[in-house]
Specification:
Pfam families: DUF3846. This is DUF3846 domain-containing protein. InterPro entries: DUF3846 (IPR024559). By secondary structure, this protein is of the alpha+beta class. About 20% of the residues lie in helices and about 40% in strands. The protein has one domain. Strands 2-1-7-4-3 form a 5-stranded antiparallel beta sheet, with helices on both faces. It has a two-stranded antiparallel ribbon with strand order 5-6. It is globular. The mean pLDDT is about 90.
Length: about 100
């Protein structure tokens, strides 16, 4: 089990323990892609690219200096496959708060 952080549009983010990548697919409503933000070192974002332009905007990210949007649900995971720590969750919360 690993601890991840789930953010759905217009909802508060929450921590969740998951056992496998099938759960990631369920959380993002289908096939997923892993992206990153320049400001979240060591943390990846799991998103469903099929949501692009279909589901409501979630928040913007900057990847390799380029601005993009995360659409639909997003799951924050530790890039190395380990559980997110409390410090990681605090960093994500600060990141999300700056996007409001």
């Amino acid at each position: 089990m690993i601890t991840v952080y789930v953010k759905r549009p217009h909802e508060e983010a929450y921590k969740m323990d998951i056992a496998n990548s099938d759960t990631l697919s369920e959380l993002v409503d289908g096939d997923f892609e892993v992206v990153s933000d320049d400001n979240l070192d060591g943390i990846s974002l799991v998103v469903n690219e099929d949501s692009r332009g279909v589901l409501a905007n979630n928040f913007p990210i900057t990847s390799d200096g380029y601005l993009d949007w995360v659409y639909g649900p997003c799951v924050f995971v530790k890039a190395d496959g380990h559980s997110l720590s409390d410090a990681d969750v605090e960093l994500i919360n600060q990141f999300l708060a700056a996007k409001v």
